[in-house]
């Protein structure tokens, strides 16, 4: 009948922003899974990190599916989201960034299958973040969830560049068309 339940048992319309955010997060995990498969075929060592990110996205979804306005303390404890995964992403970003040449132009999604799939994942991540931010602003989701998605999009961008570099693939840059 167009309704679904949150983790707290509350019934909401399927078009509710909670379910929009959950759907975007699920799409993100699927996109990362595809990027992980392409990256695995190329022997990239970061594939385990991508799997860990997918597991964290399950925790992101649990937090989103538990609107704080209807959550009991037991719900909140079970679905809380700490700052630790955010700090881990920042460490990964720093580690890969140190190995990359500096950016001198806008990068277009490119650089081989692994890189392009990671760029797609980054774009889906940014959409998921846009869906989560209003929930955080309304006090329905933990602010760390939005912070995690924000840092995750940066991680995916850096990882896309790293994959292209490791595979010896050229990153296409933006060139302004002549009028």
From TrEMBL:
<comment type="similarity">
    <text>Belongs to the Cob(I)alamin adenosyltransferase family.</text>
</comment>
<keyword id="KW-0067">ATP-binding</keyword>
<dbReference type="GO" id="GO:0008817">
    <property type="term" value="F:corrinoid adenosyltransferase activity"/>
</dbReference>
<comment type="subunit">
    <text>Homotrimer.</text>
</comment>
<dbReference type="Pfam" id="PF01923">
    <property type="entry name" value="Cob_adeno_trans"/>
</dbReference>
<dbReference type="GO" id="GO:0005524">
    <property type="term" value="F:ATP binding"/>
</dbReference>
<keyword id="KW-0808">Transferase</keyword>
<keyword id="KW-0547">Nucleotide-binding</keyword>
<dbReference type="InterPro" id="IPR036451">
    <property type="entry name" value="CblAdoTrfase-like_sf"/>
</dbReference>
<dbReference type="InterPro" id="IPR029499">
    <property type="entry name" value="PduO-typ"/>
</dbReference>
<comment type="function">
    <text>Converts cob(I)alamin to adenosylcobalamin (adenosylcob(III)alamin), a coenzyme for methylmalonyl-CoA mutase, therefore participates in the final step of the vitamin B12 conversion. Generates adenosylcobalamin (AdoCbl) and directly delivers the cofactor to MUT in a transfer that is stimulated by ATP-binding to MMAB and gated by MMAA.</text>
</comment>
<dbReference type="GO" id="GO:0009235">
    <property type="term" value="P:cobalamin metabolic process"/>
</dbReference>
<feature type="domain" description="Cobalamin adenosyltransferase-like">
    <location>
        <begin position="1"/>
        <end position="163"/>
    </location>
</feature>
<protein>
    <recommendedName>
        <fullName>Corrinoid adenosyltransferase MMAB</fullName>
    </recommendedName>
</protein>
<dbReference type="InterPro" id="IPR016030">
    <property type="entry name" value="CblAdoTrfase-like"/>
</dbReference>
């Amino acid at each position: 009948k167009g309704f679904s339940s949150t983790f707290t048992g509350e019934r909401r319309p399927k078009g509710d922003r909670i379910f929009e955010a959950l759907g975007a997060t699920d799409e993100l995990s699927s996109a990362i899974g595809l990027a992980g498969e392409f990256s695995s075929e190329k022997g990239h060592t970061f594939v385990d990190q991508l799997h860990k990110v997918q597991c964290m996205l399950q925790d992101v979804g649990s937090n989103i599916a538990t609107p704080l306005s209807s959550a009991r303390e037991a719900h909140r404890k079970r679905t809380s989201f700490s700052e630790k995964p955010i700090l881990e992403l920042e460490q990964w970003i720093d580690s890969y960034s140190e190995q990359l040449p500096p950016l001198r132009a806008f990068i277009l999604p490119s650089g081989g299958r692994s890189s392009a799939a990671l760029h797609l994942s980054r774009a889906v991540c940014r959409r998921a973040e846009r869906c989560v931010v209003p929930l955080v602003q309304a006090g329905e989701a933990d602010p760390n969830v939005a912070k995690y998605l924000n840092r995750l999009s940066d991680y995916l961008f850096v990882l896309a560049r790293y994959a292209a570099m490791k595979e010896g693939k050229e990153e296409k840059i933006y060139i302004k068309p002549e009028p």
